[in-house]
Amino acid sequence: MLQTILGSKGTMKMLVSGAGDIKLTKNGNVLPHKMQISHPTTLLISKVAIVQDDIAGNGTTSNILIIRELLRQADLYISEVLPPRIITEGFEAAKKKALQFGEQIKVSRDMDRETLYKGGQNISESSC
Known about the structure:
about 130 residues
């Protein structure tokens, strides 16, 4: 469901509450907030989306889709009788590599008010 929200051609989702209230949204963070979730794994994933939105204000849908694919791949390997411990160790190794890569490519810049203003202006112009 979330994959169809992603991008400029993403589709709106209609959420209907028990009281019949209707909400249309394209925001991936609205869904975890408004849906009644009882499955433990799904609940943890929705908390990731909430924290992502609280910290960065964006990227919730992408985060959920990445988690979904990681779980899909883990399930595939488990069905091929690979021990979950090995999969977990692989995830940990991948996390370390990703963090190292992030440290290597990050760009440190001093941000003054003018730079932030120009960046915001460029974003707003490209979003139209």
